[in-house]
Amino acid sequence: MESSAIAAAKDVLGLFGVILACGTVACVVAKRLKVPDVVLLLVAGVLAGPSLFGWIDVGVDTPLNQALLVFGACYILFDGGASLRLGVLKNVWITILVISTVGVFISTIVVAAAAYQILGISVLTAVVAGRNRRVDRPGDVGPHLSAGADL
């Protein structure tokens, strides 16, 4: 007879296996179709999730969800660092500096002003909305650096 801890561990490992299998298949298909892998990863998640096939049902407030988020963030940062070429960084460091300082400030002001005018929300709420609308994830910035290297 299995203990509840062993049964829980088997469930978690099974979910990881399903997630990795679905993700791997999605990436292979995306490469063959020459579409961004993110698109098919999203489709695979919808198909495998509780709304359709029900293979994966991870609650938002569960430790497994937190583990998946941490693993995903670690992978994105590792992949971004592993694929970064210092020669490219030398050529675009000024752009990165401006985007990460002045660009964030300008986009915050523009989005906050638009949210205040269009949505009619308070100034403080509009500024918070503006501040949260910025590009700073490696998955967002990396493709722009790669495109700049080809110019």
List the helices and strands and how they pair.
Elements: H1 4-33, H2 37-48, H3 63-83, H4 86-119, H5 123-132, H6 138-150
Helix pairs in contact: 1-2, 4-5, 4-6
How would you describe this protein?
By secondary structure, the protein is mainly alpha-helical. It has two domains: 4-83, no CATH class; 86-150, no CATH class. It contains six helices and no strands. The chain has helices at residues 4-33, 37-48, 63-83, 86-119, 123-132, 138-150. It is extended and about 55 Å long. Residues 144-151 have low confidence and may be disordered.
Quickly list its features.
151 residues; mainly alpha; 2 domains; 6 helices; extended
The major pleated sheet works out as: none
Number of strands: 0
The topology string of helices and strands comes to: HHHHHH
- The gross shape turns out to be extended
**Range of strand content:** under 5%
Structural domains: how many: 2
Low-confidence stretches: 144-151
| Overall average pLDDT | 80
